[in-house]
Fold this sequence. Notes:
- This protein is of the alpha+beta class.
- The longest helix has 9 residues, at 56-64.
- The protein has helices spanning 10-14, 56-64, 77-83, 88-91, 94-97, 127-133, and strands at 20-25, 31-36, 39-43, 46-50, 66-71, 102-104, 111-113, 118-124, 135-145, 166-169, 172-174.
- It has a single domain, classed as Roll (Pnp Oxidase, Chain A), CATH 2.30.110.
- The site of flavin mononucleotide has 20 residues, from strand 2 and helix 2.
- Flavin mononucleotide binds next to strand 2 and helix 2.
Amino acid sequence: MYKQLDPNFAYRVFTGGPLITIFTKNEKDIPDGMTAAWSCPYDPDVLLLVLDKDHTTSENIRHNGKLVVAIPSADQKDIALTLGSVHGRDVGNKLQIKRIDTELSKSFEYPVIKDALAYFECVCEDAALFAEKGICLAKVKNVYVKEEMWDDANEHFVPGCTHTLQHVSAGNFKTGGKVI
Length: 180
Ligand SMILES: Cc1cc2nc3c(=O)[nH]c(=O)nc-3n(C[C@H](O)[C@H](O)[C@H](O)COP(=O)(O)O)c2cc1C
């Protein structure tokens, strides 16, 4: 037996990749950060993100094409909710005003949440697609992962993947699924 749902709930059944936070800078060098649930890999070194065109983050990406994607750990849920609750352009420096603890990414030197499980320094590959559809194909220039979250022998993100957050609805998330 199946229960039929309203098609508008499709995304809640499908869910996305890990919850991510995205860090950018505007033309005045003011940093911003937001949270996104709609993401997945597109190519081995390209991430696909779906962003509302009106977000400050989207304006910033249209401005210089650069973004840093960070994967928060389960204990950073509240930070993710804070970053996803207000527009940077409405408050100025969201990271400062919301007292987000950050560290500079290694190459771009953008502020990212401190102690994220991993982060990716990216450039938005197809500006026209992003401007038209809000689909950001984020080409990874550098990826950094917390050493203890990476299995060198098998070249995969265990135990990292068990510490990520998956968005369920509103302020609800899941984490810690077993790897079998
Ligand atoms: C859990 C969560 C998931 C979200 N997922 C997305 C998403 O996938 N895409 C999107 O455009 N906005 C998403 N948002 C909304 C943005 O994070 C939010 O509007 C944010 O304030 C935008 O900030 P900005 O204007 O400073 O860029 C999400 C928010 C939360 C709390």
